[in-house]
Design brief:
By secondary structure, the chain is mainly α. It has one domain. It is 73% helix and 1% strand. The longest helix is centred in the middle third of the chain and has 33 residues. The radius of gyration is 21 Å and the shape is globular.
Length: 461
């Protein structure tokens, strides 16, 4: 059936990579993965208007699910396109690397359509376990990769257990596992049960206090894997949060907890990023801070908040992957770059330096980038919902983030490297990808109403 086309195609790609993994060498596997992921993105776009309910209402194809499937498919394509065929991190594990990331994307696609608690939980676990498997594949830094993988597994298992416990409470309160059958009255116990269910989603978002895994996982994972974890799983987690929020009354307990999580996540992430020297750890703490910004849209419990959060997660995907372009190409050894490795980047690769600069400006929220419009929409939705103090905390944290984001630009353009470093050569596809990321980030900052109207129409159907 056409309604399942994105999921079916993604699952088929996973099975293909699984078969190819049995061969010792698969020439041009990277090009094949890029081509298939782009085709998957086009199919998800073609399937955007499909609607329907299946499996007795446990699986729903609606505007929200289809929009987020497009974003997930796009994220997978961008991550595969950013990688290099000779990437040492996955040498000997190429097919497995593509297979597990594709399987994780498939789990996220199922997750955004799940309208039943057990289906949701299984999809959440499928997307997570695929990443648990791909993390230790890094050969270049095996000890860090193993440490990051173990931490990701342990914290993920704890978050899953808490989530399952919360689902049990919701079932006991409502007598059903269907989301629409969760007739909640706004009581304190219901709010606590929802927070327990949200734990697995907060883990995906790396929201405080479920963030402890992020810095070590980003640092230990191979660069393409870290880029995937930094952006794509957050898309699926946000979709489920939006689905729950649409069905949940505003309870005082729930609002207070989300308020505190948002404020602490923004503050902790930005303060921790200020002292980081490893570029991937800095981006990890940046992700923790941006998860707090996303909560500004969730906490409003209104359509404007849903649209603003979705708009921001799309922009966040582009600007984070733009920053990871520098991570992927800075070092010939494919190690973990430090801030000092950014020195003189404009001489080694002007296009890569400009991509990093535009991404950093957008992550801060400087006009005319998409990050500015995304934060403006989030702050507006929270302000209209009456959360003035949270908006002020967000604005202060945005100013705080100026110091470390603009430091990336300063090092790239205003500091000379120690010694003589070779030119960074980007392939034609990587150059096109850099130009595309720059164009999209600036376009979303200059013309936000186009995407905002599309999201508003899709998320209400």
């Amino acid at each position: 059936m056409r309604e399942f086309l994105p999921e079916a195609f993604t699952l088929g790609c996973f099975l293909l990579y699984l078969v190819l993994s049995m061969k010792k060498r698969s020439p041009r596997l990277g090009a094949l993965a890029v081509g298939l992921s782009f085709l998957g993105f086009l199919l998800s776009l073609w399937d955007l208007g499909q609607r329907g309910e299946f499996f007795n209402g446990a699986y729903r194809v609606d505007g929200l699910s289809q929009v987020f499937k497009v974003i997930i498919a796009l994220g997978l394509f961008l991550v595969f396109g950013m990688g290099k065929e000779r990437e040492d991190a996955e040498r000997g594990y190429g097919a497995e690397f593509y297979a597990f990331l594709t399987l994780s994307a498939f789990g996220l696609m199922v997750l955004v359509s799940a309208c039943e608690l057990l289906t949701l939980f299984l999809a959440l676990e499928l997307s997570s376990y695929s990443l648990y498997l791909v993390l230790p594949l890094r050969r270049e830094m095996p000890s860090q990769a193993l440490e990051g993988g173990v931490k990701y597994l342990l914290f993920g298992a704890m978050a899953s257990g808490i989530t399952l416990y919360g689902m049990g409470y919701l079932y006991a309160l409502s007598g059903s596992t269907r989301l629409e059958a969760l007739v909640l009255q706004g009581e304190a116990l219901e709010g606590l049960a929802l927070i327990l269910v949200f734990c697995g989603l907060f883990f995906k978002l790396s929201l405080f206090p479920f963030h402890f895994w992020a810095p070590d996982v980003y640092q230990g994972a191979s660069n393409p894997t870290a880029a995937f974890i930094a952006g794509v799983p957050k898309v699926g987690a946000l979709a489920v949060l939006l689905r729950f929020v649409a069905l949940t009354p505003e309870t005082e307990v729930l609002i207070r907890i989300l308020w505190v999580f948002s404020a602490l996540s923004m503050t902790f992430g930005n303060l921790s990023a200020l002292v980081q020297r490893d570029l991937k750890r800095l981006l990890a703490y940046s992700g923790i801070a941006h998860a707090g910004y996303l909560m500004l849209g969730i906490i409003s419990f209104e359509d404007l908040g849903r649209v603003s959060a979705t708009y921001y997660v799309i922009v966040y995907l582009f600007m984070t992957l733009g920053a990871f372009m520098a991570v992927l190409f800075l070092l010939d050894s494919r190690g973990n770059p430090s801030l000092d490795d950014l020195r003189g980047l404009y001489r080694r690769s002007p296009l890569l330096a400009f991509t990093l600069a535009v991404s950093a400006f957008s992550l801060v929220g400087i006009p005319p980038t998409g990050g500015f419009m995304g934060k403006l929409l989030l702050f507006t939705s929270a302000f209209k919902a009456g959360y003035l103090y949270l908006v002020i905390i967000g604005a202060v944290n945005t100013a705080l983030s100026l110091f470390y984001y603009l430091n990336l630009v300063r090092l790239s353009y205003c500091r000379e490297p120690e010694g003589v470093l070779g030119e960074i050569r980007l392939g034609p596809f990587q150059k096109a990808l850099c130009l595309g990321l720059i164009a999209v980030i600036i376009y979303l900052g200059l013309f936000p109403t186009v995407l905002e109207r599309l999201l508003g129409a899709a998320l209400t159907t």
